Amino acid sequence: MDQLDLFAEAEEIPATFTARPAQSRPAAAPRPAAVPAPRPAPAPRPVVAAAEPDSLFADPRPELPAVQTPIPARRGVTPLMIGNPRDAGQRLGEAVAETWHASNWGGYRMDIPVSIVAALALFPIKGHTEDVTRIISTCTDWELLQGYREIYAATWSSRPDLGARMAPLMGWLTEDGVEEKAYAVRRVTDTALKYGVLQMTGSTDPDSRSDTDLMSWTITSLRSHGARQGLGEYHTPPELCDMMARLTCDAESLQKGAWFHEPAGGTGGMFRALAQHLRNHHLDPADFGWAINDLDPLAAAGAAVNAIVWGLGPSVVVSCGDALRQGDVVDQAIRERAALIEERNQIVGYLATVEAYGEAIKLADRLMAGPTAA
């Protein structure tokens, strides 16, 4: 579970304030009371001069004990019972939208709450839902934002083609002043955890992760009715998708390597149903090809997220464009996919070369220093 370092556990961090008294000269020794003497006039008593401090930190009084002001750790989120995953997905989307709108950021930046749900669904550690929930819900704001950056970086490293399509979900993490959004990000994160985002996407079995389309429910709930009408974007009921998959796909006659195409697929609800249909016939969706397109960049980004969450395999192409006007959006996406994978390989190879060069320099330094250097 080394990868759990993506979100370091929050601990109680004491803020120490040492109450040191102000530096001052010690008061002069008081004159003792006059003692009568048989002599006509008593001799004057000398005044004891005040001693200078030995140094800046000399202090004639004892130092007060340190004051410990503990900062209490955040309380973890306790998820609700999700019940039917499809109903739970709708509840999560609606709750996230309500939380986001109540955080004073409004709907004009719906990419941020969608990005949060997507990142939690993509969390690379599967099968440790309780641990992951505790770590995320108790980490600091800085760790939370950094954790989201690392999730998307890891996604790009493993699937650069799909990671590039998720660009609309990543931009806010690199903006100036992103820390100012931490309060709203925290609230949406807690809401998504409470409503079971990890319960629905944190299993090691892709079949269990394919019961619902969280990205569609989240985007639909956040988008205004007018915007949905303008885009022609509506959430297709999963029961209808299931029926259409059964009616249109003869799983018994399918050959491995066959491709499925969806020119206006939204976040991929039909592909989710089709993948489950294949699994019901003991077929692995990763043995087939999947090409999906949508006009809306945010929906296409959601489809890229779902392709990983649902385990559709390595042969996935997600494009964004007007399929009726352009016609070749899938072919173009296939070419872009090959270029992105090549670019990733070059970058990783360059980083490996730099690391190897650094290790070689260290080894040469040790050799030249001789056996006594250790």
Q: Describe it for me?
A:
- The strands form two sheets. Strands 3-4-5 form a three-stranded parallel beta sheet, with helices on both faces.
- The protein is globular, with a radius of gyration of 32 Å.
- The chain contains 15 helices and five strands.
- The protein is mainly alpha-helical and about 375 residues long.
- The two termini are about 35 Å apart.
- It has helices spanning about 85-100, 110-120, 130-140, 140-160, 160-165, 165-170, 180-195, 195-200, 215-220, 225-230, 240-250, 270-280, 295-310, 325, 330-370; strands at about 15, 65-70, 260, 290-295, 315-320.
- Helix 2 packs across helix 4 (about 140-160), helix 9 (about 215-220) packs antiparallel against helix 13 (about 295-310) and helix 11 (about 240-250) packs across helix 12 (about 270-280).
- The chain has two domains: about 85-335, no CATH class; about 340-374.
- The relative contact order is 0.11.
- Strand 4 (about 290-295), helix 13 (about 295-310) and strand 5 (about 315-320) form a beta-alpha-beta unit.
Quickly describe the structure.
The chain is mainly alpha-helical and 374 residues long. It contains 15 helices and five strands. It has two domains: 85-333, no CATH class; 341-373.
Q: Which value, in Å, is the CA radius of gyration?
A: 32 Å
Helix content: 40-55%
Q: Any idea what the shape is?
A: globular
Q: Quick one: biggest sheet?
A: 3 strands, parallel
Total helix count?
Answer: 15
Beta-sheet strand percentage? 5-15%
How many domain units? 2
Encode the helix/strand succession as letters.
EEHHHHHHHHHHHEHEHEHH
Average predicted local confidence, pLDDT: 78
